[in-house]
Amino acid sequence: MSDKTLDTLVQDMNDVLIKAVNGEGIQFTDAELETFGHDIMDAIRHWAAPREQSTGLRMSNVGHPNRKLWYDIKHDLKEQSFKPHDAMKFLFGHIIEELVLLIVRKSGHKVENEQKEIEVLGVTGHMDCTIDGKVVDVKSASPFAFTKFVTGKVAQEDPFGYMAQLSGYEHAMGTDGGGFLVMNKVTGELTLFQPDFVDLPNIENRIVEVREQIDADNPPPFCYPLVEMDNGNKKLSRDCLFCPHKVDCYSEMGVRVFRYSSGDEFLVGEISKLPRVEEVTGEYV
Fold first, then answer.
1. pLDDT confidence of residue 2
2. Can you give the pTM of this predicted structure?
3. Dihedral sign for Cα atoms in the order 98, 116, 239, 278
4. Is domain 6-210 in CATH 3.90.320, yes or no?
5. Which of 17, 63, 77, 187 is the most exposed place for a label (fewest CB within 10 A)?
6. Rounded to whole angstroms, how far apart are CA atoms 223 and 237?
């Protein structure tokens, strides 16, 4: 076990990284680079491998909103409108995570239990790793998402269920005090967010609750309230936009999609003022 702790992790990593730009240079051993090379190969193989869309309960989704999980389990998942550059974005995320762990190791912190399978009440998952004996989930993030980790806002606004996922891994490992090591994929900045214990759900209670919800005949309440626009129209919350069920979920109220310069907006219900932009509802139905 390393004698270092997470308290100095980001500073220690920055102390390594600064050497690459101040002329001192970073001296990697052949063994360190070979480990990194194998990790990158494994990440690319995993990214490129064919795989079926899973609709079961997993540690990675147990913290998702109840209504989304109900649709995940009960409904066939429609093909999402991914574009070629989305594939590159996902691969870039995998590579960033391995690069971050390379610097973690070089900074003297100990990385163990990579991709270890864990199980809680029959729900399984694969954790990223432990660093210095603590569960750590490594992520790359947009500037918007990165700020949520820096400020700790992600503990309260958590549409992807990160808190439940961490709670499950810690419960299975019998540890606490873990967190999220996050890199801003635009600026390269690093942050470590360690949620307070009170921000983590009791994972066993959460699993029981989720199973009750997804066994019901009717879907749970909507995950997020609609957003009222200045012109009186109502649209989906930002947190709904990455959900594959967003159109089906509000089908009884009616959903129409309009392509603004800033992105597609999903208007729900009666439209008070028709947008003067292209309607692309057909691309989502």
1. 63
2. 0.89
3. positive
4. yes
5. 187
6. 9
The ranges assigned to domains in the chain are 6-210, 227-284
Alpha-carbon span 97 to 86, nearest angstrom: 17
CA distance 276 to 205: 48
Q: What pLDDT is stored for residue 77 in this prediction?
A: 54
**In the chain, alpha helices (H):** 9-17, 30-48, 66-74, 84-106, 143-151, 162-173, 203-215, 246-249
CB 139 within 8 A of CB 127: no
User: Please, what is the end-to-end C-alpha distance for the chain in angstroms?
Assistant: 53
- In this prediction, residue 133 carries a pLDDT of 97
Alpha carbon separation from 185 to 9, 24, 143, 278 (Å, rounded): 18, 24, 7, 32
166 φ/ψ sector (left φ>0, alpha ψ -120 to 50, else beta): alpha
Least confident stretch, 131-140, 161-170, 188-197, 234-243: 234-243
CA dihedral 141→145→151→153, nearest 10 degrees, is -130
Q: Nearest to residue 167, comparing CAs of 205, 220, 132?
A: 205
Fill in the DSSP letter of residue 153.
G
Mean pLDDT in the chain? 93
pLDDT band at 35 (very low <50, low <70, confident <90, very high): very high
Residue 181: beta bridge partners? 138, 192
Do strands 278-279 and 234-235 pair parallel, antiparallel, or not at all (unpaired)?
Answer: unpaired
**Poorest-confidence range of 131-135, 168-172, 239-243?**
239-243
